[in-house]
Amino acid sequence: MLDEGEFQRWMRQAEHTLESAERDRSERDYAWACFKAEQAAQCALKALLISIGQVAHGHSLRRLIRQVEASGFSVPSSVVTAAEGLERHYIPSRYPDAYPEGSPFEFYHDEQAQEALRWADHIIDFVWEAFRSVQRASTS
Hints:
Elements: H1 4-26, H2 30-51, H3 61-70, H4 77-87, H5 110-139
Helix pairs in contact: 1-2, 1-5, 2-3, 2-5, 4-5
């Protein structure tokens, strides 16, 4: 059974997090913008999985994508590419020991933040479309 309430709850968080990432980018806080873009995509993928009764634990976007595919969804290669790109920001955007010297904020720039925001938005769009397809199928 489709759990629309849980889907909406998780998607509200995904969209709020993406909006927060956009504000970080506008404030030139690029590392946090990239991390939050990854988090927004993570919440969106979990929204889809939870809405169809799947357990969605963990933080790997690639693993969540594989779980979405295993649940019967066709995931476009552009969504896989976006997930792989965002996953690269999960650790290095926050932890200084991800670099030989310097701090994460010194390594992030506007271009990376713009790209991360586009990727997250693309994944969120995919999740909405996938959810709508399940909704249509469940009412047929």
